[in-house]
Amino acid sequence: MKWLQIHITVDQPLVEQTEQLLLSLGAVSVTLDDAEDQALLEPLPGETPLWNKVIVTGIYQNTEDDPINTHALIAFATSQLPDSTPITHDELEDQVWERSWMDYYEPIQITDTFWVVPEWLEPPNAQAVNLKLDPGLAFGTGNHASTFLCLEWLGQTDLTDKVVIDYGCGSGILGVAALLLGAKYVYATDIDPQAVLATQQNAELNGVLDRLFVGLPEEFNQVFKPKQADVLVANILAGPLMSLVEEFSQLTRPHAAFALAGIIEEQVDDVAAAYTNYFHVTDRAKREDTWFRLSGTRQGE
């Protein structure tokens, strides 16, 4: 069996209309890709940002018994879109599409003794701390620079018997990493129910679910307060980080270690300044010339 791909390049406002058009014409799946190599900031959980110009691709099953009239399909699609909308097509050989994305993931080395490994691959170093992850579960795979920076910090921090907060947990990768690296217990929270489920699944995959609580913020507040954590890590965005300063100070004990990420270069000074009343920001780390991590300790009392 062969598969026909129809690629249509449109501006962002036309993406949903184009998706629906391809599906109405029998596409078995529709994917979205960047048409102009435009960088996107890592989204908040639950958000789905799009590029300004998007390649919308519909995949069609093309069998010998029921071949597709490619010319007619493209002609109709063209008639439903603005003039001069770019449309191309090609054919693909049969494969297992629903898991073909797995080919693009490789193990990620965080430190000499700490790796993130897709669950279907063998760890390069069986003696290392190997965090097994299904990247399809949610946001947070270790590939993004801000996630890597947090994992790197966790790998360099003494977490032995520490209570850790993973605030904005996404896939749970940071909380699970903390447990594998020696933390006693992790409290994780996220505003998206999908992230809560993904964190539970990845914790179970790594055998640490019994030492982790994860819930929506209101559930987290009920369970955690008035406890205080030894370590806090938050990989979200600059705006939420600055709005959470006082809350983070209440959630952490004096001299607790912390790391913040999801910050681009233009925001570093503002975020650092916002934390000076409650925290000592002692380190700034950069990755890919754009993304920064701030870390340090909570002030004493």
From TrEMBL:
Protein's recorded name: Ribosomal protein L11 methyltransferase
Q: What class of enzyme is it?
A: transferase
Catalytic reactions on record:
L-lysyl-[protein] + 3 S-adenosyl-L-methionine = N(6),N(6),N(6)-trimethyl-L-lysyl-[protein] + 3 S-adenosyl-L-homocysteine + 3 H(+)
Q: Which organism is it from?
A: Acinetobacter apis
Which family is annotated?
A: Belongs to the methyltransferase superfamily. PrmA family.
InterPro entries recorded? Ribosomal_L11_MeTrfase_PrmA, Ribosomal_PrmA_MeTrfase, SAM-dependent_MTases_sf
Listed CDD domains = AdoMet_MTases
Q: Highest taxon of the source?
A: Bacteria
- Per the record, GO CC terms? cytosol; ribosome
What SUPFAM superfamilies does the entry give?
S-adenosyl-L-methionine-dependent methyltransferases
A biological process (GO) of this protein is: methylation
Residues bound to S-adenosyl-L-methionine are T147, G168, D190, N235
**Pfam families tied to this protein:** PrmA
Q: Name one GO molecular function term.
A: protein-lysine N-methyltransferase activity
Q: Where in the cell is it found?
A: Cytoplasm
- Known function: Methylates ribosomal protein L11.
